[in-house]
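Purpose: get a first structural picture of the assembly so the mutagenesis plan has something to point at.
Setup: six entries, given in the order below. No constraints added.
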Amino acid sequence: MTATDGETRNKLLKAARKEFIDKGYMNASLRAICKDAGVTTGALYFFFKDKDELFAEVVSKPLFAIREALGAHLEFEEQEYSEGYDEESSEGPDTEVSKKIVEIMFKYKDECVLLLTKSSGSSLEFAKDSFIERLEGSYRVTTDKIAEARGCKKVDDYTLHYLTHMQVESFIYLLTHSKDIDEALKELPYIIKHMRGGWFAVMGM
Amino acid sequence: MTATDGETRNKLLKAARKEFIDKGYMNASLRAICKDAGVTTGALYFFFKDKDELFAEVVSKPLFAIREALGAHLEFEEQEYSEGYDEESSEGPDTEVSKKIVEIMFKYKDECVLLLTKSSGSSLEFAKDSFIERLEGSYRVTTDKIAEARGCKKVDDYTLHYLTHMQVESFIYLLTHSKDIDEALKELPYIIKHMRGGWFAVMGM
Amino acid sequence: MTATDGETRNKLLKAARKEFIDKGYMNASLRAICKDAGVTTGALYFFFKDKDELFAEVVSKPLFAIREALGAHLEFEEQEYSEGYDEESSEGPDTEVSKKIVEIMFKYKDECVLLLTKSSGSSLEFAKDSFIERLEGSYRVTTDKIAEARGCKKVDDYTLHYLTHMQVESFIYLLTHSKDIDEALKELPYIIKHMRGGWFAVMGM
Amino acid sequence: MTATDGETRNKLLKAARKEFIDKGYMNASLRAICKDAGVTTGALYFFFKDKDELFAEVVSKPLFAIREALGAHLEFEEQEYSEGYDEESSEGPDTEVSKKIVEIMFKYKDECVLLLTKSSGSSLEFAKDSFIERLEGSYRVTTDKIAEARGCKKVDDYTLHYLTHMQVESFIYLLTHSKDIDEALKELPYIIKHMRGGWFAVMGM
DNA sequence: TATGAATGAGTCTTCATTCAT
DNA sequence: TATGAATGAAGACTCATTCAT
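Result (structure tokens, whole complex):
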């Protein structure tokens, strides 16, 4: 009757994953999760403080991975653009970082979709916005450097936020519309080309 | 005591509008709506089949207006691009159409935000996707023509869908991030420039 | 199936009365109340906002009656003692007022016991304290006048609060320990005598 | 890692004390207690049969102390009043006993308040009543002797119970309304004076 | 000694919906 | 037209308690 290792917890987590991915945070039912896991409600509350914590646990790995990948992305960008930038290259090192992000997102595909598009109501509902915010800070630095180097005027705040938002949105698109990672990686270069084209247009280059 | 014309119905709609906009479709409470309208639940069900129909009614005007504007947009684009396209112009006639769309969206700002970002759970939760689909059909034609005229290769389906999606997303951004229509119209040219830059980049021009 | 007049509401109220009196506010179960009333949970919430409101409704009549009686009591005392006081009389007009209070309390005996001793957790848990507070204000005036008239020193705040508290406690005793109103009225004179003796002793008369 | 002596048990008791005093018997949560003690639920049930036993353990020392003090009180009173009584003295030997009781109660102040006012639901919820009962038996003897000595008629059962109840209630008042033992001891003489005044009035002296 | 896991019934409350009148 | 009443299932969450290890 008693689980040796984290059997019940895992069953719970697995059932929760399914339910959350199916219904989103708000419409997920803890009852349904417990029933699916073949466990009573009390058991759930032994392992998790509440619905929110259960959700956080389900998306924790991808959340952490994305944050880390984002950190790498930012670090790279800030340093790279300071050294000058070749706008023709479509196989540059930032493509590498983008690839890595895509790989991570697809490793935890469903969880990422959940976190980025169906987390409303949970304490992580602003995860996407926080990603945008982090990116924005970095882009501020980057674009200023480029503007200085090229002698064009700096990007204003509204535009910068818009560009960042769209950047993130394009990654989410890749995530939600590609049937698998291979397709995503195949399309990635076009997305990058598209975004770059947009940036350059706006920056007047 | 009895309403001559649609007084009760209107009170209901007004209250529903507020509640839906505040809470989104799913989290809106019919009870709260009735209470706010000073009317009993039964009355609501006399006028509306269910929650979904009430919601549809609330967003019907903007929904219709957007569809219409979209129709105009499409008609124009299909015809315009067939005549050749001056990529330098940022004040061309498609800017006119975009302006019109922005104006409509801001005329029913709250309803549009509701429809485009908080309709999940209702039968209109895919309204945004249907907009995208319609646009996509038109863009298929347009881009093919341009490609032919310029002698570059046609945009594949995946990319086309992506571009359309982003186009719509950028309008939603304008809607949700501008404090009023004046700001939106001020920023619109930059958004257009950005989108065009992206398109051209992808199309290899 | 549908009740013509307030039948269901009354059944609910009656069941609630029983359950609250039996178990006290906190340990009363709304489920049990509904079951006893032969009604679903939803019905209860149609008539009452929540557990607290249901409770308030159950004790509302006695609560109101006591407040009123207290008002009369106070009015009388403030006026009476201003005219001089005959400490020998045990059948004076304040005995009359006390009688009336006892009568009211016994008219709603169970509800009063509920309100005064088993309301913890509800918004009326401090009803008793508010009674004491009201009495205390009045006694402040009264005792000051007496002290002045007799030339003895005024009762300090701590003592006044204590005396008032005990006064109320003695009425609660009467309520909870008399098998019926007749016994209560029979014992009342002794209680009055006792309280008066205490007051005079403390005031040094 | 393993406690040599009653370390865990003590941690449990300490945490229980806090929780019970904070929330009262019924609203105290064993979970919260275990968590606060840094111990699992099972541990609690190793040391204590159930919630009730844990509670009893928490209040056992003051309960015992009060019983003992009460025993002394009774012994003294029964003997004292048999020798005659000087009603003028406010510094008599029964004042000494009262002082001792107050001292004990304040030594375990929180526990006493808990036992006397927040034990409802536990098997000790009638501890207060049992104190009253014991006192009453003694007072029966005492008052009969006094009545005989003075030639006034005996106190009837109802009145005796009432007087005893009030006596206890006055001690509880002292306990719950004095900020510390010094204030309590300062006020004690007035309380005694008040109670005596009441007794004499009722006994017709 | 104590843990960690699990039970299962219980808490109050909210929901969209129905229907006789 | 509208009301008032009622449904019944579901919501998240807490409880004291048990027991194999």
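Residues 29-31, 41-42, 45, 50-51 of chain B lie near DNA strand E (CB under 10 Å from a C1').
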